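Batch job 17 of 40 flagged for manual review because the log was empty.
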Amino acid sequence: MSDGVLDDDKNLGHGKKYKRYSVKSIGRREVLLSTLIGGAGLFSVLNFLRRGRFSPVSSSDFANSTPRDLLGYKYSGDDGTVVPLDEESKKVYTNIRTAIYSGNDQSDKYTVLVGYDNDEQRVGTVHRPIYCYEGAGFKIAKLEKKDSLFPSFPEISGTYMIAEREDRREAVIYVIRLSSFFPTSEVDQNIAELKSRVMYHSYDAALLRMSTSMGRGEDPYERLREFGEKYLRGLNARGRDIVVGLKSYS
C-alpha cells in the first residue's frame, strides 16, 4: 500500500510563591510514570553494559558492503551514480560507498549506494532518498511501502519508488535501518529511534539504496527486488551485518 510522500526550562520569577508538595500529594499516575521512566532507564543501562558501544567501522570493513564478486553480476566500478547523496545526507553518514553492477543484458544494470554510521550524534537523523531525487530535479511518480522485501530476509521492509525526469526514469528500492528496525515512514523512523535508545542505548544506522533505469511503460520492481535478494545473499557476514544488522541485534 502507498506510504504517502515520504516523505522547558522555566525561568523562575523573583517574588513568586510556589506550592510545596508533600509525599501525600503524589498520585498513582505520578508513581506509575516514575516507575516506567526508571524502568526504561535501568533497561537501557543493562543493555549498554551487555552490548557495549560500537567501534568505528574501518574502510576495509566497509568495503565488504560493495563486493567485487556478486552472484552472477559483474562489478563495473563505483562511478556513475545518477543521483548522488545530497549535502544533508553527506552530513549524516561518515561512511558512504557506491557500486555499479551489470548482468548479462545491457538493461540489467544496477547502482548500489550504502550509507552507514554508528555515531550516536548522527544515527537518529537518517536522510530519506526521496529528498535526493527531488533535489536532482526528479518528480516522484510512485512511492510504496514494501514489507518482507526479500524472500531470504523477511525481517526487512523498505520502500519502492519511481522517479521521473525529462531525460531519465529511475526505479529505486531503498531500505533504512535503525538498529534492528526498518522504518518506512518518518513517523516509524522516530518511533524506531526511541525504541533503539531504550533497548540498545548504543546503536547504528544504515541506508541501502538500489536503483536501475527504466523504459516507458515498464515497472521493473520484480527485477530490482531479485537483484536486491542476490546482493544481500552475495555479501559476506561482515558486509551483511553492516548493511542490515541482523547479526548485531540477534
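Reviewer: the log was empty due to a logging misconfiguration, but the result itself is present. DSSP finds seven helices and eight strands in the chain. Unflagging and moving on to job 18.
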